[in-house]
Amino acid sequence: xxxxxxxxxxxxxxxxxxxxxxxxxxxxxxxxxxxxxxxxxxxxxxxxxxxxxxxxxxxxxxxxxxxxxxxxxxxxxxxxxxxxxxxxxxxxxxxxxxxxxxxxxxxxxxxxxxxxxxxxxxxxxxxxxxxxxxxxxxxxxxxxxxxxxxxxxxxxxxxxxxxxxxxxxxxxxxxxxxxxxxxxxxxxxxxxxxxxxxxxxxxxxxxxxxxxxxxxxxxxxxxxxxxxxxxxxxxxxxxxxxxxxxxxxxxxxxxxxxxxxxxxxxxxxxxxxxxxxxxxxxxxxxxxxxxxxxxxxxxxxxxxxxxxxxxxxxxxxxxxxxxxxxxxxxxxxxxxxxxxxxxxxxxxxxxxxxxxxxxxxxxxxxxxxxxxxxxxxxxxxxxxxxxxxxxxxxxxxxxxxxxxxxxxxxxxxxxxxxxxxxxxxxxxxxxxxxxxxxxxxxxxxxxxxxxxxxxxxxxx
Amino acid sequence: xxxxxxxxxxxxxxxxxxxxxxxxxxxxxxxxxxxxxxxxxxxxxxxxxxxxxxxxxxxxxxxxxxxxxxxxxxxxxxxxxxxxxxxxxxxxxxxxxxxxxxxxxxxxxxxxxxxxxxxxxxxxxxxxxxxxxxxxxxxxxxxxxxxxxxxxxxxxxxxxxxxxxxxxxxxxxxxxxxxxxxxxxxxxxxxxxxxxxxxxxxxxxxxxxxxxxxxxxxxxxxxxxxxxxxxxxxxxxxxxxxxxxxxxxxxxxxxxxxxxxxxxxxxxxxxxxxxxxxxxxxxxxxxxxxxxxxxxxxxxxxxx
Lengths: 460, 304
Known about the structure:
The complex is a heterodimer of chains A (460) and B (304).
Chain A (H helix, E strand, L loop, with lengths): L1 H26 L36 E8 L7 H13 L3 E8 L1 H14 L5 E4 L9 H6 L22 E2 L2 E2 L6 E9 H6 L9 H13 L3 E3 L9 H14 L5 H7 L10 H13 L5 H4 L4 H9 L3 E7 L3 H4 L10 E4 L9 E5 L2 E4 L6 H11 L5 H8 L17 H12 L3 E2 L10 H13 L6 H17 L1
Parallel strand pairs in A: 1-2, 1-3, 7-8, 10-12
Antiparallel strand pairs in A: 3-11, 4-5, 6-8, 6-9, 6-10
Chain B lengths: L2 E2 L5 E2 L13 H22 L17 H8 L2 H30 L7 H9 L6 H11 L6 H8 L16 H25 L4 H9 L4 H12 L1 H16 L3 H7 L10 H11 L3 H32 L1
Antiparallel strand pairs in B: 1-2
């Protein structure tokens, strides 16, 4: 009996302790800094730096170890885990850079755990705006990121608004990611198409020509529902952001809504046309994964596929159809051609780091556009840089050039989900799949569903 | 051995199991409290907050998360999908498992090899099985589609994962394929405890094979049936792997199970507080179903 009592008391004590510890987790947020007022503008022009960091911090630091954590899969002679630490050691023998590279899901879990315990690495990988679980806005709001306004590498750059939180640049990124339409030039020629389409009507005509020639116009792997974003965001750039670049900001203030006429209803209707006419075969695409769609494209079973610059290597590989010539164009809109081209993930410095200035010096060296680290970084072929030496030697640069030109002309817009609370796009994808899968869902249901989800996610 | 003291209190000690032996419970108890009880209590705690998984400066929101989960339709949809999935996997894997166990409990040649083959799929991880079956189910070029084409059918039209009506059944079949070997092994162990003399007596009394199964074998392995059914129910109600790997909850929301919805709410929507509330409700639901099943099955055992 005594033992039973003792065990019961132990359990009760543990439960009480756990409750108290849990309560403490909420209240004890003394590190890092408190979030700024919620009514301030989230994204704004970068503030001028109040102080300039110590540009010789590393030289004066003695032997130090900097830590860095990124997501991805480490390859042989991997840039982040092998080349970068070696190049840093060459430049500064007193610095040891320890890099951890984890698969995406592990990275997110590990990052959250380390942030919660105050043991976060000095440099971490973050995404622009609200994209992903490592979005720079969410992390900056929680006070985890150091402002980078005083870096030399950001001086004069006007393209960093999607990594600028309340006037502070919080992520250093120099790469862009593009969404576009890869196409098989041989199959286009076979169907009598001689030029890339410049309007939505021309695009539909080309699809019809391909279909009439017995060629499947477009293949998509809609079983991985995220691929729906590849087409929809391009159309949104054409039909929504080109007319109202502040559309998403206004969504948050309630001045616009997903249900507004001439916005998402138009985009969804346009994309649905491709399924209605069987230019994308929903009966097949809903059972196809993204990689299976890529395989079909390189095997010459379809003339086009919507995909990103991040999959260029796979989409330009030789398949069963041999080494046919490939092109890449932005899906045109009804009144012009715009592009869904956004800043890629970049590097942030943890605000609780003991080596903030050292990390800034390292990042400045890395991103200076000419250093050995920069050259090694570009030579991976996974980065489409917008400046610096060797930017034009990026693999597949010819494919990306038209998009970069559009971006430089001010005709490039970020990917929609970067500005939405995470989860809005999954609702859009699920409802769109239901519509093309014949479940009776309408365009109005989708826009209403997106609006409801958006409001629901912002509600807390 | 439990002795009763003068005050009527049972004393759970003996010369072999002395009081000192209870100290050995402490490490296990500590692990249990730290790694199970504590996280579960944390789950309850987070379920009444607006924690997003990143920002620890969160607030209490009372029962709002519960109200939202119950009102926004995600619980209903995922519960419906989970129940269909669980019923399918429980029924089919137990029927197949029992049938195969009975066959492999007879005196046939190479039964060791057959037993190994039947158990083989259980050795693979869910990730591997999910990827393999994605290609088996692939429309047009998948294994089944090719077989259909070879026999003159329309292989291109075979698209079980892309069809709203079949996607849930398709992933449940994969779970059954992988899991029936484990079920079979447990049934096999149960069948081997059936006394041969009882079967012999039944045979002498003129029982047919079916009557022997119905009136002798099944009643004698009723506790094995209970174990298998309960384990399958728990596994079915916790379904996550194949929805995640093979369909990612799609097409649409047709394969979103309870656990998938918890995952999506926590890691896609970044609503850790709401996901915790969802988990608490799912936990209660699974406990309720399991307890009811257990009571029913135990009652049946006694009747048999």
